[in-house]
Amino acid sequence: MIASHFSTKPAPTRRTLFNIIRAGNLAVIAAVLIAGCGKKQAGPPGGPGGLGGPMEVGVLTIAPAPVTLTQDLPGRISAFRVAEVRARVNGIVLKRLFTEGSDVAEGQVLYEIDPAPYQAALDSARGTLARAEANATTARLKEERFKQLLIAKAISKQDYDDALANERTYDADVLSGKAAVQAARITLDYTKVTSPITGRIGISQVTEGAYVQASAANLLATVQQLDRVYVDVTQASSELLRLRRDLASGRLKADETGKPRVKLIHEDGEIYPDEGSLEVSDVTVNATTNSVTVRAIFPNPRGELLPGLFVRARLEEGSSPDAILVPQLAVSRNSKGEPTTLVVGANGTAELRVLQTPRAVGNQWLVTAGLKPGDQVIVDNLQRVRPGAPVKAIPAAPSQAPATVSAR
């Protein structure tokens, strides 16, 4: 009777208990994953505005602003005048009479070449001239005597003609002797090498004791005039034509002589304090690049501008009192290559606009068509916004506002 109150089933084994526990854990994990997925799908797909709400975008409200229109042209500085000092006689360099990198005056002696052989040549030419002059004097006196004897019919006409020809021959020897003396003196003067212009002299290419030759035209040093300098820039031929039209119409700023005024910008962005003037342009258009070289002249009283420096010449082309500027980061290109930007439309959706941007203004574009004052240009979240999508406009960060008013 007592045994009937107990189950007759066998007791569960250890393996059976492990399977039961593992099955329970898997069920719990599956429930957690399902709950997580449900929460993720319940989030708002439209962004911070809530489920299906508009996306917040930073916008810049278009407001016209005055802009000074300029054009920057890259170029390099060259000296106003360059004179290469070369040897004009053969000989040994005895002295160098200047300090490298100093200013020298026109006619200042820079080198002395051994003058001894050229002094001897000059003395020889002078001796030859003295002999010719003595012979010419004797011949002239003889011609005068024979002329009197011919009048008295004491000599024949042939004797007088011979005396006259002899006189003229020695006169010719005198002229040749004088030319030889002058040539020898010039050659002797070449042993003192002088500066052909006033300017700054560079590094000497020879030292004392060096042998130089006139036939090789050995370069001794280079003198450059730097109180004024040239800036040679390259410009497209079409831009040159527009530049001339703007100058004729008065849009381009010019000086009292009618030449356009130019500012100089150093490589580090610093503006040179003295203005220059646009002088001439090359008479030939480069057929490969369709460009011409334009030359400007700048004063250089402090010697700051050195030949070879890379600079930018800035031309002032007038001003626009109501220009529209858009950050370059807010402008992209469509499949046709046209500049486009996104604006907040009247219905609160993103609207794609095609623009006309003829030139850059620092880190912005100057817009001449496609935008009007009051338009809200989207300047951030551009990767996520698509045309037609609902958006919520908020003011953009101050760093995205216009930072310059000089177009170039």
Structural notes for this entry:
With 408 residues, the chain is an alpha+beta fold. It has 4 helices and 21 strands. It has a 6-stranded antiparallel barrel with strand order 2-9-12-11-10-13. The protein has a 4-stranded antiparallel sheet with strand order 6-5-3-8, with no helix packed on it.
Number of helix segments? 4
The overall strand count is 21
Order of helices and strands: HEEEEEHHEEEEHEEEEEEEEEEEE
How can the largest sheet be summarized?
6 strands, antiparallel, barrel
Average pLDDT number? 81
Please estimate the helix content: 25-40%
User: What is the CATH C-level name of the largest domain?
Assistant: Mainly Beta
**Structural class of the helix and strand makeup?**
alpha+beta
Uncertain ranges: 1-11, 26-51, 401-408
CATH-defined architecture of the largest domain: Beta Barrel
Shape: elongated
Taken as a percent bin, the fraction of beta residues is: 25-35%
Number of domains: 4
Calculate Rg over CA atoms. 47 Å
Return the CATH topology of the largest domain. OB fold (Dihydrolipoamide Acetyltransferase, E2P)
Euclidean distance between termini CA atoms: 112 Å
User: What would CATH call the homologous superfamily of the largest domain?
Assistant: RNA polymerase II/Efflux pump adaptor protein, barrel-sandwich hybrid domain
Describe the strand arrangement of the main beta sheet, using strand numbers: 2-9-12-11-10-13
Describe the SSE topology.
Layout: H1 14-41, E1 55-61, E2 65-86, E3 91-96, E4 103-104, E5 109-113, H2 116-151, H3 157-189, E6 192-194, E7 199-201, E8 211-212, E9 219-236, H4 237-249, E10 261-265, E11 276-281, E12 291-299, E13 310-327, E14 332-333, E15 339-344, E16 350-354, E17 359-361, E18 364-367, E19 376-378, E20 391-395, E21 406-407
Parallel strand pairs: 1-20, 2-21
Antiparallel strand pairs: 1-19, 2-9, 2-13, 3-5, 3-8, 4-7, 5-6, 7-9, 9-12, 10-11, 10-13, 11-12, 13-18, 14-15, 15-16, 17-18
Helix pairs in contact: 2-3
